Amino acid sequence: MKKKIVVGSLRQETNSFSPVITVEDHFSVSKGQDMLNKIAVTEMFENAGFEVIPTICAYAIPSGKVDQKAYVGFKQSILDGIPRDGSVAGVWLYLHGAMNVVNIGSGEGPLVAEIRRLVGPGVPIAVALDFHANNTEELIQNANIICGYRTAPHVDGIQTQQRAADLLLRCIKENVLPQCVMVRPPLLFPGEMVTTGVEPAKSLIAELDKIEAQEGVWTASLFGCMPWTDAPNAGSSVVVCGLKESKTPLKEAKRLARMFWNARERFGFEETAAQPEKAIQMACAMTDSPVFISDSGDNVTGGAAGDNAYFLNLLLQHQCKNTLVAGITDQPATEKFYALSVGESLETSIGGTLDSNSTAVTIKGTLKCKGIFERDSKPGMKYVLVETDGIDIILTETRSSFTTQDIIEKTGAKVSDYHMIVVKLGYLFPDLRRIAKGAVMALTTGNCGLQMDRFDFHHIHRPMYPVDKDFDWEP
Ligand SMILES: [Zn+2]
How would you classify the pairing of strands 237-242 and 179-183? Predict the structure, then answer.
């Protein structure tokens, strides 16, 4: 019988402070050949002579906790796809690592544990994870290979998937079952403080290659964590996978975790960070355009709702001109403007439709553009570009993040027309960084606020830096 490799992917990053529960409908789901086309490893496995068995590939953008029923359904779809006839040679998974499910907690741990129970101890399981994974012992103990992204902002998703696939093939070929060990420095930094292109993260990532070069080690990963998940598994980790009998994986995991901990006071923001009003003043004073301001507290890519009009209100108060707000999620307001013809105006409230803590503001706006974004396997999402008092605003029907020039300009807004562009992001994604002539991180409050000691945590391990300070830690 031809040996089979089962593949599956379930990814969502949970911000447990967001009230927007992630339901089944928020996921893009593909199955069968479609699923095989979505992942970056199908050909690798086929070329190695294996039959690739698809299960599901489900992805939702970062948001609140995942609905229990949706999660259980996805998990079951993956389990149901695993042949029970002993023909499985290996299991490959692409997960986020910071999924948190209502009434369950970590989504990845139980998934991998149940797969392990099904396939037994002798079948290798390899898992590719996001850099912001909040790892659990349950996950680490049940996987033979764990590979995390090595870049933040992330540009190595494909390489990470393929590294995990490569090592899975090695497990099968050499008939070896490595094990993973994890060491967790008590660090809970927002991603904006741990970007891998700059120090000290850059040097920590560079250590991974040195660790992998050692005898007995197969792969090593460092995880920056998802800090806005109030759960016992929230926090950074170092995971090293290697031969069971070798002492090197644990020794090296401890060494790198210690380096991470020792560097804690050196992590900062790549952009200048400032309180909101100061951020506007600084951006206005910059001479080159465009200047990007991150409304970081309402960062959609970190799971915040993206419906807060607080910053828009501030821009109106400061009578800013040549400014684009990209964007605000507001379904009712989008529908109202969408019903107009270009050039027509109306007065309406914007903001606060998803999160009761978000600000709403009333504007009189004129429709400049409207359209529908196409999304895979989902109905299109309506957007409008509206002008009010010299400020252009992109409104969207559902939560969306504007991470590239192309996505912004699809709405009819032209980046070169503005001095200031306000985005609901934390760090600027590479494409925006490329075109930004200046950037300011506005320290707005919200579910992705960057001042971690302002959050009311109940479930994370304590002490935890920088929520707690003045304590020491030994691995
Ligand atoms: Zn991430």
Answer: antiparallel
